[in-house]
Design brief:
Blueprint lengths: L1 H6 L5 H7 L2 E7 L8 H15 L2 E7 L14 H12 L2 E7 L7 H8 L8 E9 L4 H13 L2 E3 L5 E3 L4 E2 L3 E2 L5 H20 L3
Parallel strand pairs: 1-2, 1-3, 3-4, 4-5, 4-6
Antiparallel strand pairs: 7-8
The structure holds flavin mononucleotide.
Flavin mononucleotide (FMN) binds next to loops.
Length: 196
């Protein structure tokens, strides 16, 4: 079949997936007023866009006005699922709240299922210890949602990457890690697309 496809200049689904640009969502995990996540998300998007290897977009949970699971059937739930379905992979911008992820992110994770499955994700976290504890909690949740989380995990410190804990001034040393994480997210997102 592949010989005939080649002969007649047809491309297979696998060949299309190998060449097309993937859609990667940069998901802001916090929704509180005064949150720092938009600064971090925009910084990651700026680095990602320079690579030109995928379509990167900021996905802000706050825009969807999601109710808590089971409380109401708001239109935001369908819109949230539709947005996730458009995406091939994710970068979670994760902040540490009481040694874990935010309630807003957990609720947003719980409000979809198939739209998460068989996709890849990277994590960029921040907190007093780089948000490491929140990120490790998130990895456990991602396993249940069949999201393959990549190894490289940039960790940002509230003390050394933010001025006065509020204005984001990342150290240069994070740049290589962000790019390595994005390399891994792209490779795994592409691979997983072949089985969806
Ligand atoms: C409810 C709450 C709990 C927090 N708990 C922790 C914590 O356990 N560890 C930590 O490093 N930072 C903690 N912080 C500090 C946050 O990581 C910091 O405020 C960060 O800016 C929050 O992200 P955001 O600005 O995007 O909301 C907490 C902040 C809040 C609001």
């Amino acid at each position: 079949m592949s010989f005939l496809n080649k002969l007649f200049g047809k491309t297979t689904k696998e060949e299309e997936i190998m060449t097309e640009k993937l859609n990667i969502g940069i998901i802001l995990g916090s929704t509180r007023q005064g949150r720092l996540s938009p600064q971090v998300g925009e910084w990651v998007k700026g680095i990602a866009d320079q690579r030109g290897d995928a379509n990167y977009e900021i996905v802000d949970i706050a825009d969807f006005k999601l109710p808590f699971l089971g409380e109401a059937d708001a239109p935001g739930i369908a819109a949230w699922n539709e947005k996730l379905a458009e995406l091939d992979g994710f970068v979670f911008i994760v902040q540490e709240y009481n040694h874990s992820i935010t309630g807003a992110l957990k609720n947003a994770l719980d409000l979809a299922r198939e739209a998460w499955n068989n996709k890849a994700a990277g994590i960029v976290s921040y907190g007093s210890t780089g948000g490491a504890r929140a990120a490790e909690h998130l990895r456990g949740i991602l396993g249940e949602l069949m999201i393959a989380d990549v190894r490289t995990h940039p960790t940002l410190s509230l003390f050394t990457d933010f001025e006065n804990g509020t204005v984001f001034k990342p150290q240069d040393l994070h740049l290589d890690n962000i790019n390595l994480m994005l390399d891994q997210v792209n490779t795994w997102s592409r691979a997983l697309k072949t089985i969806r």
